[in-house]
Amino acid sequence: MRLSNLHLLVVAALAWPSLVSMALAFSRADYADALDKSIIFFDLQRSGRLPSWQRLRWRGNSALNDGRSNNVDLSGGYYDAGDNVKFGLPMAFSVSMLSWGAVEFGDALRMTGQRGNTLNAIRWGTDYLLKASARPNELWVQVGDPNSDHQCWQRPEEMDTPRNAYKVDAVRPGSDVAGETAAALASASIAFRDIDNAYSARLLSRARQVFAFADRYRGKYSDVLGGVVCPFYCSYSGYMDELVWGAAWLYRATRENGYLKYLIRNGNALGGSTQSVNQFSWDNKYAGAQVLLAQFVMQGVNGLQGYNDRADSYICAVLPRSISWSSQLQFSPGGMLYTMGQLNMQYVTSSSFLLTTYARYLSAARRTVNCGGRQVTAAQLFSAAQRQVDYMLGRNPRGLSYMIGFGRNPTRVHHRAASLPSIRTSPQKIECKLGFNWFNSWNPNPNVATGAVIGGPDQGDNIYDSRSNYAQMEPATYVNAPVVGVLSELAVGRRY
């Protein structure tokens, strides 16, 4: 978006240099506080009848009748971002990343007292995914008409926009969203394995079923759902990365040769062992699957070396040039990894997660990674991840934290529930168009979107604090989900 002179002045007002903020060091207690808030954000995004353990008290019940017109119960789950739509692809990815964090860093989450809160957040998502996949060869992938939703600015508790439900099936396939759902269910089954064996088994059984559906009936869900999911969550990368991702998680969950052989046999055809990428997101899962499978190569499993090589390539690509001669991405003057202007912080959190996870794998295997002739250690990977998280929390030229409720924040987060008076304090209905009075206001949001990691600044470290600036000011579950595991490691003072 091109800014007017007035807008540029607003940016300039936020762009004062802060040597103090750049020198800021966070303590373990600071990271623990940020960790707690990062999980609370999922309370803000929760749909359905809120549970007794809901910690964010100003939210209320919403969308209780989702799916009823289709004779299916689709209540629950999460809204993806600042809107009131439940998009299945980013929701399942968020659950996968929360689950991977719980699997990989469960000891750190336990030490910080956050394992229970993390599992609660995961289960709210997996309970919904179980309902959405209850019938064989059928998966409900969205509730809410995004085009109607974006014409209104309403609290989720009283929205009256259409709650149409959309599905994929054998006739209208969606291997991408189904593969991601299988990954979410399989990873969560590991997270719950020593907590609730029966629930874990149920998740794994459903993951097998959904993955078989994804693999047998191949196609992009955005090809069959068109304008309902595009341009919001089009499957730009296609569905092959999700098939690799789903199979990788099923292999980790089961250690069965069938899934291993699938990954080896299809490594080239599906691109998992050949595709080098420099981003990991709700859309493109190759880097996540490659890092996940690299652990098995380091443990001596044969046939997956191509995945390990591609994982090395990703890791080297996202490191700054001071560490890696293979670096491919831009960094802002303040040191933030910059990929694109639309919710760039998602790439900051996802790369930080993969760097931290790879550091864990390298440390256990006593290995380094070769980046353009430089041997990069696990400690260097973890340090690079920490610098990105520190930037997010306020160690940047503006001295702004892009996690709301932690440090000094922008105040006009692009989020319906946070920007409108809470229904608990102002129960009078706010009609569809009337809500834009708050949207267009320059007043700070009346409610704190605790823990929300917003889209973040541009490549020059600048941010425009306006609700209309959704690219920088909107949070999303898939931005928060990866940082939970990293913050848990920092909170316990982990060293590699």
Automatic annotation (TrEMBL):
Gene3D superfamilies the UniProt entry points to: 1.50.10.10
Catalytic activity, EC: 3.2.1.4
Reactions catalysed, as given in the entry: Endohydrolysis of (1->4)-beta-D-glucosidic linkages in cellulose, lichenin and cereal beta-D-glucans
Classification via InterPro entries: 6-hairpin_glycosidase_sf, 6hp_glycosidase-like_sf, Glyco_hydro_9
UniProt keyword Hydrolase, yes or no: yes
Record-level Gene Ontology MF annotations: cellulase activity
Domain of life: Eukaryota
Enzyme kind, highest EC tier: hydrolase
Cited Pfam families: Glyco_hydro_9 (PF00759)
Domain Glycoside hydrolase family: 31-487
Keywords assigned by UniProt, alphabetized: Carbohydrate metabolism, Cellulose degradation, Glycosidase, Hydrolase, Polysaccharide degradation, Signal
Signal sequence bounds: 1-25
SUPFAM superfamilies (UniProt xref): Six-hairpin glycosidases
GO biological-process terms attached to the record: cellulose catabolic process
PANTHER family (UniProt xref): ENDO-1,4-BETA-GLUCANASE (PTHR22298)
UniProt similarity note: Belongs to the glycosyl hydrolase 9 (cellulase E) family.
Record protein name field: cellulase
Taxonomy of the source species: Eukaryota, Viridiplantae, Streptophyta, Embryophyta, Bryophyta
The gene coding this protein: LOC112280461
